[in-house]
From TrEMBL:
Broad class of the protein's primary localization: membrane
Residues annotated as domain Leucine-rich repeat-containing N-terminal plant-type: 29-66
Provenance organism: Helianthus annuus (Common sunflower)
E.C. designation(s): 2.7.11.1
Taxonomic placement: Eukaryota, Viridiplantae, Streptophyta, Embryophyta, Tracheophyta
Annotated compartments: Membrane
SUPFAM superfamilies: L domain-like
The protein's name in its UniProt record: Non-specific serine/threonine protein kinase
Short name of one Pfam family: LRR_6
Signal peptide start-end: 1-23
Any one of the GO CC terms: membrane
UniProt keyword annotations, A-Z: Kinase, Leucine-rich repeat, Membrane, Repeat, Serine/threonine-protein kinase, Signal, Transferase
Length: 396
């Protein structure tokens, strides 16, 4: 009788196992998670790995999501704001999680190269390893991830160029590679779904060709690089932009008038080598426009008088400031008007006019006797008026 009960018990156990077979994690994925775990540690104050007990079901681990016995999402680290993150290195076995669609790593102190084996994850759509210490080059093999939509490797220590294979990915919507040490030129991007391209704070150089960026872009940040050449053929194509920052580069040539009609809140083109006159195509509704520290010349367009914060300082503008600026300034509609370090010859404002305390005006170092005394930023210097010799020689 005892043997019969043992047989029945064994059969029940087998039936239970068979009934849960679909929930058992694939052995390859199980071993890959073990390798990943061994190569990483919680930073002090983090307890992310406390749930990673391999005597239990890995699909219940923090950050692990499964479907059909395969890992489909892996989010390494505690995602809560201020969490300490992880240290160590990313193990190459991550490439064995063949059904993975999303892989993220929270900010921490993970070092070393990005595993080339990530290229084996053919279903990967979201890859975000930001704010760590990932170094070396971006593997060109990532260009094999044809389903990839978001690539975020920002705030790391990546070097080398942006692989052209990345630009050839057809489904990209977000590329965020800012705050690294990437160099050489920006590759063309073919995805007509790309809406965000953030490459600021790198060491990128070269010219951006007219058709190298898709017209689908809504966010473009290229500031703090060494990019050169004109943009007057490029920018008119990007008329869906709601954010544009090209500051602190070496761009040259004219600024196309159409950019002042973009539906953006802050136009940042300062500290380049843009030249020529500036003429918006219509009234400018952008709240903040910064064209300072360029080589722009000609008269100041009255169409800029609708801008709340206008930086035209450190250029080569000439002539008298249009009367409409005075009207809007005294009405408090202009909060900041920086015109210092140009070659302006006048501003039709009564010396007794009271400028609202909420408004800032700087006219220092132009070819005029200052009609009003107003405080200027410290970097405007102490000289009130430009030397007469400079004013006579400058012809725009």
């Amino acid at each position: 009788m005892k043997g019969v009960f043992e047989m029945i018990s064994l059969m029940v156990t087998l039936l239970q196992l068979l009934s849960t077979t679909s929930a058992i994690l694939d052995p390859v994925d199980f071993l890959a998670l073990q390798s990943i775990r061994k190569s990483l540690e919680d930073l002090p104050g983090s307890n992310y790995f406390s749930s990673w007990d391999f005597t239990s079901d890995p699909c219940n681990f923090a950050g692990v999501y499964c479907e059909g016995g395969k890992v489909i999402v892996l989010n390494l680290g505690d995602p809560r704001a201020g969490a300490p993150g992880l240290s160590g290195r990313l193990h190459p076995d991550i490439g064995k999680l063949s059904s993975l669609t999303e892989f993220t790593v929270v900010p921490g102190r993970i070092m070393g190269a990005l595993p080339v084996t990530l290229s084996k994850l053919k279903n990967l759509r979201f890859l975000a390893v930001s704010r760590n210490f990932i170094s070396q080059a971006i593997p060109a093999e990532l260009g094999e991830l044809k389903q990839l939509r978001t690539l975020d490797l920002s705030y790391n220590q990546l070097t080398g160029s942006i692989p052209w294979a990345i630009g050839n990915l057809p489904e990209l919507t977000n590329v965020i590679l800012c705050h690294n040490h990437l160099s050489v030129s920006i590759p063309p991007f073919i995805s007509q779904s790309l809406t965000r391209l953030d490459l600021k704070h790198n060491e990128l150089s070269g010219i951006i060709e007219r058709n190298s960026l898709p017209s689908s872009l809504q966010y473009l940040s290229l500031s703090w690089n060494q990019l050169t050449g004109p943009v007057d053929q490029l920018l008119p194509r990007l008329n869906k932009l709601n954010y544009l920052d090209l500051s602190l580069n070496q761009f040259t040539g004219p600024i196309p008038g159409c950019v002042f009609g973009f539906q953006i809140t802050n136009l940042q083109l300062e500290r380049n080598r843009f030249s020529g006159p500036v003429q918006p195509e219509g009234s400018v509704t952008i709240p903040t426009v910064d064209l300072s520290h360029n080589m722009l010349y000609g008269q100041v367009s009255p169409l800029f008088a609708t801008v709340e914060n206008l930086y035209l300082n450190n250029n080569r503008f000439t002539g008298s400031v249009p009367t409409v600026f005075v009207d809007r300034l005294t009405a408090g509609d202009i909060r900041l008007l920086y015109l210092q370090h140009n070659f302006l010859t006048g501003m039709p404002i009564n010396p007794r006019t009271e400028i609202p305390l909420s408004s800032s005006l700087c006219l220092q170092y132009n070819c005029m006797v200052l009609p009003v005394q107003t405080p200027c930023p410290i970097n405007a210097g102490t000289q009130k008026t430009r030397p007469t010799s400079q004013c006579m020689e400058w012809k725009g």
